Amino acid sequence: MEYRRHPENTLNHLLSIFFIYPMIAPLIILDFFLEIYHNIGFRLYGLPLVEREKYIRIDRHKLSYLGPVAKLNCVYCGYANGLLAYAARIAGDTEAYWCGIKHEVGNGYIEPAHHKHFLKYGDEVAYRQISTRLRQSYGVAKEEKVCKLSKEIRLR
Q: Is the separation of the CB atoms in 56 and 88 below 8 Å?
């Protein structure tokens, strides 16, 4: 509601409509392909599916004290921000499954929360130890044991 402090920017707010609302098209395309990947890829990897409803919440349009434009904006923001948080979670789970190594620190890089248990950048010894354990585990265990071990590693 910060915009209410700046009534002098009303024209700018109206002009921004031409840049904000067209973003719905790429968001819908992202949503479509994300769901295909999520439902097929995660099942193939043995990863638990991310619960969409925990990320995308469209409910503020039900508030009787909001006007029609505010309700439309609330639907858009609930979908857009929820979808992007959902996509970030799916991408993070994918990164943890395939990689699990932190990025190099520095230059103002903001580390994502899901990197908390990843291996440190440049820690070749830990990488080789975990790789060896996973290969050994795969050679003697069923697929479920491999998934369990990789989850353990991510929790470190």
A: no
- Look over the chain and give the mean of its residue pLDDT values, rounded to a whole number: 89
Provide the whole-model pTM. Answer: 0.81
27 contact partners, CB below 8 Å, separation of at least 6: 79, 80, 83
The residue type found at 6 is H
**Secondary structure in 3-state letters for 73-119:** HHHHHHHHHHHHHHHHHHHHHHHHHHCCECCCCCCCCCCCHHHCCCE
How many Cα atoms sit within 13 Å of 144 on the Cβ side? 0
Q: Is the pLDDT of residue 90 over 70?
A: yes
